[in-house]
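Objective 1b. Sequence-to-structure analysis of Putative redox-active protein with C_GCAxxG_C_C motif.
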Amino acid sequence: MDRRKALKMAAGAALGGSVGFWGIQKLSEPDYLSEQEAKPLTPVANELDWKYHSLDPQVTAELAYQKYKDGGCMYSCFLSIIKQLADAYGEPYASFPLHSMRYGHGGISGYGSICGTLNGAAAAISLFVPEKENRDKMITGLFRWYEEQFLPVFIPKAPLVDADIVLSQANSVLCHASVTNWTKVSGIKVSDKVRIERCRRLTADVAEKTVDILNQFFEGDYMAADPHNATTRTCLTCHGSHGKLDNTSGDMNCTSCHSKSVAHSVFAKPHYKVMK
């Protein structure tokens, strides 16, 4: 056999193998979870004393920014909402033990888990929306926004640190991931005062968004989007409660912590197809 014929045969075998591989992959495609349409949420009568009153998102953001120095991200995000209600309406808002929200700094006492801004925001939503279904969808919507948006965008009236803050996409609701992604983009160290200013402004962004969500909800204008994004829909198809594996739960973005191995990319679909 001459060299040219051998090369043609090798190329043909490679092409055939490639076509066969992709054919198997295509035939093994699971029925992926479909995207859900956005639906309006209807407030349920709240028999508790903790009633929400519409607030100005921009005023809330500025207050969260200014109060950050007194207790960190969770504290100032939550306080920016409750303090306005206490000043305008008195009790029960004025008696809320705001100091209890200081634990959330740095992903809970510096542990790096859930971002304190989101922890405080979720607490505020929960205070005014006691029913589980609405509350969960609103918090999920806020968390997804936090994962996907390029933040911070808030510009304070009187910056405590005069710097151009680089925007970054957190791709996670975790403090350490959010901060690390920002340091990679900005090239600034975690201990730098500019990083602290970044988190201060991020707190303002989240406080503003939280009030915007609450305002829309109680005005009957809030639309709850699909709790999953494209990535989580793909992963939960097999790994979620409706899949054969049924070995994980949650809606947070998968790729913040997980990536597909070569073996997963090659064998996962055919293997899943033959699973019982």
